[in-house]
Specification:
Blueprint lengths: L5 H12 L5 H11 L3 H6 L5 H21 L7 H4 L7 H4 L4 H12 L5 H7 L20 H7 L4 H12 L9 H10 L2 H20 L1
Helix pairs in contact: 7-12, 10-12
């Protein structure tokens, strides 16, 4: 760009001053993190593919550390171990189903394991009130165990649940299967199950 262009003049002033929170200051931080500080100092072009790989590596490592250190994401860690777009987003489900899946995976559905935290209820006392199993009302419980949802569960997952191969899987493996390989059905199940739960609670 010609040095007399207004945009070039503004850039040079910003670049030389590097005042806090300025555009050049922010770009310098980003390029330093991506191991391209020399490119910033030399005002030279950056290989975007290389920068993209560096950015992915940095963000992936940060994401793994944050997920592993968060006790709230104990279930999320069972099936999510790679830094990539969630399958449920790629499948383009309806907004309601996508929202329900996201709430379920991130642990913010209003189940007793979550709502009990708001009132300092001890974890062992956050029992499901929809069945007689005396289990904590957690994500695994409503998806795999709770008898209140048996008819919904059977109508949606009948083929899988009756498969001989399925009977040999552990609960964790079944849980992962529902979320990773039967995502659309799981979304449908959650929508129906939570609707039934709300109807039961507020009838």
């Amino acid at each position: 760009m010609n040095d007399n262009r207004i945009s070039k003049l503004v850039f040079n002033v910003d670049y030389l001053n590097l005042s806090p929170h300025s555009w050049s200051s922010e770009i310098k931080c980003v390029m330093t993190e991506l191991q391209h500080r020399n490119k910033f100092e030399n005002k030279s072009a950056v290989d975007l593919n290389c920068a993209k790989l560096n950015a992915y590596g940095i963000n992936s490592e940060s994401w793994i550390q944050n997920v592993q250190s968060s006790p709230k994401l104990r279930t999320y860690k069972l099936f999510k171990n790679t830094f990539e777009t969630e399958k449920c987003v790629k499948l383009n489900p309806t907004k309601h189903k996508r929202s329900m899946l996201a709430q379920f995976c991130c642990g913010i559905l209003p189940l007793r394991i979550e709502t009990g935290r708001y009132v300092n209820e001890p974890l062992p006392e956050r029992i499901c009130t929809k069945c007689d199993l005396q289990c904590i009302e957690a994500k695994e419980h409503i998806l795999l165990e709770c008898s209140f949802y048996n008819s919904i569960r059977l109508s949606i997952f009948r083929d899988a649940l009756q498969s001989e191969l399925f009977t040999s899987k552990s609960d964790n493996e079944i849980f992962k299967y529902f979320l990773l390989d039967a995502t659309r059905k799981t979304a449908k199940y959650l929508v129906n199950a939570i609707a039934a739960r709300r109807q039961k609670l507020y009838a």
